[in-house]
Hints:
The protein is α+β, with helices and mostly antiparallel strands and 188 residues long. It has helices spanning 9-30, 80-107, 116-143, 159-179, 181-187; strands spanning 35-38, 47-51, 56-60, 66-67, 154-157. It has a domain at 79-186: Up-down Bundle (Butyryl-CoA Dehydrogenase, subunit A, domain 3), CATH 1.20.140.
Amino acid sequence: xxxxxxxxxxxxxxxxxxxxxxxxxxxxxxxxxxxxxxxxxxxxxxxxxxxxxxxxxxxxxxxxxxxxxxxxxxxxxxxxxxxxxxxxxxxxxxxxxxxxxxxxxxxxxxxxxxxxxxxxxxxxxxxxxxxxxxxxxxxxxxxxxxxxxxxxxxxxxxxxxxxxxxxxxxxxxxxxxxxxxxxxxxxx
Length: 188
């Protein structure tokens, strides 16, 4: 029988979810909004501090004046969950790029048959990259209220943290979908 030209659905799912996960994780890594601190004592009522893993910004809600590069008086960037995120988030991004490269070589839509083993390996690499960003996002979330902030201020989860979570989950799901290619190797 002739080999089919169709790319397996699981591979397509993996190749759609993982780049989306990469974009979300990249945004989450770069955007300075893992945590929002508001109602800071002795500060204007409409001031919001946005804290990321690299930068800290202050914004006045009334005027939308936004200033980044704020000084870290409370030692926020010295905290272990922040340090871990600084190491693991970029590592996750690099591993995701590697996984997508391997996946592209494995899926090879332009040839008759995909390389199932390579696609499966790519799936495991992408699964790992998702875990590499899920761990710091989870740990940061767990420690969110313990990280230094002015006493009495209100702390909430920032959008960067949510995007990092979503990106991690998409990479894990996409990686699992590509890892299903191993099933094909076993059949051969």
